[in-house]
């Protein structure tokens, strides 16, 4: 299988209602996004887990226009910030 045929799980803009998580999952699985929404609503009603699953999807799934997710962006920002700081907590001058 070539790299061009690989499906990627992404939050989509087409069919987006809140953040595009359900539409992205639906597109990835090849099913209607409303089926995913109904499943999440049922899971939410019976234990509240659907809201958490949606939030995790929002944080971990990259948007279709980006290569990285929200969490990956935050981690890279934090690493860049810590690379500019020495052990004493003082900022190193940019060279």
Automatic annotation (TrEMBL):
<feature type="transmembrane region" description="Helical">
    <location>
        <begin position="38"/>
        <end position="61"/>
    </location>
</feature>
<dbReference type="Pfam" id="PF04024">
    <property type="entry name" value="PspC"/>
</dbReference>
<keyword id="KW-1003">Cell membrane</keyword>
<dbReference type="GO" id="GO:0005886">
    <property type="term" value="C:plasma membrane"/>
</dbReference>
<keyword id="KW-1133">Transmembrane helix</keyword>
<dbReference type="InterPro" id="IPR052027">
    <property type="entry name" value="PspC"/>
</dbReference>
<protein>
    <submittedName>
        <fullName>Phage shock protein PspC (Stress-responsive transcriptional regulator)</fullName>
    </submittedName>
</protein>
<keyword id="KW-0812">Transmembrane</keyword>
<feature type="domain" description="Phage shock protein PspC N-terminal">
    <location>
        <begin position="7"/>
        <end position="64"/>
    </location>
</feature>
<keyword id="KW-0472">Membrane</keyword>
<dbReference type="InterPro" id="IPR007168">
    <property type="entry name" value="Phageshock_PspC_N"/>
</dbReference>
